[in-house]
Amino acid sequence: MYHLRRGKGSILFLVRFNPCNVNKFPRSRSRSPDNGPPPIRRRSFSPPAPRRIVDLPKVEDVDPVRRVERERQLAARMAAVELEKAEDKKGDTKKKEFDAVAEFAKLTSSRSGGVYMPPARLRALQAAAAQDRSSAEYQRLSWDALRKSITGIVNRVNVSNIKHVVPELFSENLIKGRGLFARSIMKAQAASLPFTPVFAALVSIINTKLPMVGELLLHRLISQFRRAFKRNDKTVCHSTTTFIAHLVNQGVAHELIALQILVLLLERPTDDSIEIAVGFTREVGAFLHENSPKANATVFERFRAVLNEGNISHRVQYMIEVLMQVRKDKYKDNPILPEGLDLVEEEEQITHEVQLEEDLKVEEGLNIFKFDPNYLENEEKYKAIKADILGEGSSSDEESESEESDSEGDEAVPEKEGIEDRTEMNIVNLRRVIYLTIMNALNYEEAVHKLLKVQLKEGEEIELVNMVIECCSQERSYSTFYGLTSERFCKLNRVWNESYEKAFETYYETIHRYETNRLRNIARLFGHLLANDAISWVVLQSIKMNEDDTTSSSRIFVKIMMQEVIESMGLPTLKERFADPEIKPLCTGMFPLDNPKNTRFSINYFTSIGLGALTEEMREHLKNAPRLIMEQRRAMLEAESSSSDSSSDTDSSSDITSSDSDANSASEDSRDRNRRRRSPSLPRHSRRDSLRRGRDESRTPSPSHRPRRDDSRTPSPPRSRRDDDRRDDPRSGYGRDRRESPARYRKRNDSTSRSPPRGRYERERSSPRESARDRDYDRRRDDSRDRYRDRRR
């Protein structure tokens, strides 16, 4: 027998158990206590045991050595756990401080557009990172903001707003972001060449205050031109030379660089080089004609030589001839400075003389972020430069002095109260803001997020809802963007839900004003909201499906809306939804049961649009409508008879009973006839006897007193089975006679087995005397028909 034994180092050994060795290791046992007091023992004064910090659970083990070892290991583990908890408590505050910073550092290190960050959380991270303005995270944040600001300002500059854009551009740190500015303006100019004079004028203004920015831009343009010329990139060469030409016109670059470029292009003429040289000369020719006439004449001599050599294509030769004509016209279409862009005085302009072949300082490192250990100092220096450029200090002093003088000299003008704007310009501006927000959103989540930021007064929620619906209707085809946007609004707050329900009622009432495409988009939008339970189905109360309350537009609207709901929910689910006891009372207008005419109209409409499954209840109601109308009529007549005389009471009761007997007799005749057709045939002799008996009974004289209506429609005598067989047998003459009977009799017999004709309801609405007269006529006609049948038999 073996058992496990633990050795040193928590190693288990398999030891063979020998029962003979049990007595070799006797276990010491404590004696049981006697009745007397325990003996007095002399104890040594040992130092007090240290307090146990951790309460260890009791370890039970038979082996004392193993128990001690397990207790020691458990104590070590518990002590380690307690130490970790204590360290965690100490580091909680530090962790809380550095969590936001670490997360923001992770966010800024990623590429822009990688992860969407809610604005509230982003502001919290920015606030956490802004606590230390000298940190790398804060500098990265300011760098991104600087890049976006410079790019936005450059992209929206034009002739009309350049004077307002320049102060905004100077308010940014252009010394730190001069690389960003040069890159942004070069990209903008390459994308829109007609705006090159505007960009050159902007650079000339900045160059007067910050020459390093103009010099860096000029170096980069020349470097870009050299690379594009070596690579034979015609497009980049054309855009770069155009920008350099306008910089020369503005006085930022010297005319020497223009002449060097022309010499390079005309040295080895090709079609592309001559085309670029012609375009460059048209832009800078007027400036060279005024400032360097000899050099300009030399350039045109070279053009004439190239034209005489004839080594270029006819298209390029024609371009040279056009350039000669432009020179004769004194560049009237290409002035040096266009109108509205002569913004810098000549004595203030700083011109950079840069050679085409010299070493250029492109400084590509300025395009990327770098940590600045002296960030705060450099920011303070640029603030001083900005104040000097914009004159902020002197202007503020002058304004304060003027305000003091005005306050002393003039009395305060009381403000007018109660001014009300009835032009509704605020509504127009609100709609413009909502429209632009919707059009600029990339997806519905961004649209909802931005629209919720729009400041709305109480009661203006419906304007936002109407604008969303109108934008949806203006699309060529329905876009789920608007459906998802509306659904998100409805599920955010009950106010939006009620606004959309109100909009449904309004648009349904005025849907006839919209053309088919807009109507379709609006219907699909509301169908999406109904299918996703974004709005309550209570809105269906406004739909009255009958001929009087609907138009062709409203019927098309309901059709498209229901098709959208079926596409999302499915027909079985929609049927269950309409059968819901809570929704069923709301749809009484769509599925009317009050008037058979409206019921038939609703059945035909929903069947035509593929929703016949929803009309089963209306069909059952329409089938039972005659009986229900008769019961209602009888109840009305009984109520009238109770207040009338006894004679009129008996007449009305007889009329009602006769009408009831007519319907009952007709139904019983049809049932008996069907029952006899289904019954099995009898033997021949029994059929003959039954036939004779039926004839005898049919020829019995009628009693003297015949009721008005009841006896006329009483069931005919039962036919024998032989008659039934003869009628069913195609070889018998009876069946042929019945099939060849006149159409008027066949029509009358068929009408008795069906529901009462429509004219019957009209007769019931007539006076009692007229109805009694009609019943007498019907009785006499039925008697004559019965006699005719007997004769034929």
Automatic annotation (TrEMBL):
Residues 673-687 have a biased composition (Basic residues). Residues 688-699, 720-751, 759-793 have a biased composition (Basic and acidic residues). Its main location: nucleus. Pfam families: MA3 (PF02847), MIF4G (PF02854). Signal peptide: none annotated. InterPro entries: ARM-type_fold, CWC22_splicing_factor, Initiation_fac_eIF4g_MI, MIF4G-like_typ-3. Residues 24-52, 390-420, 636-793 are annotated as: Disordered. Residues 429-545 form the MI domain. SMART domains: MA3, MIF4G. One of its GO terms (molecular function) is RNA binding. One of its GO terms (cellular component) is catalytic step 2 spliceosome. It is found in: Nucleus. The keyword Nucleus applies. Residues 638-667 have a biased composition (Low complexity). Keywords: mRNA processing, mRNA splicing, Nucleus. GO terms for biological process: mRNA splicing, via spliceosome. Belongs to the CWC22 family. This is Armadillo-type protein. It comes from Multifurca ochricompacta.
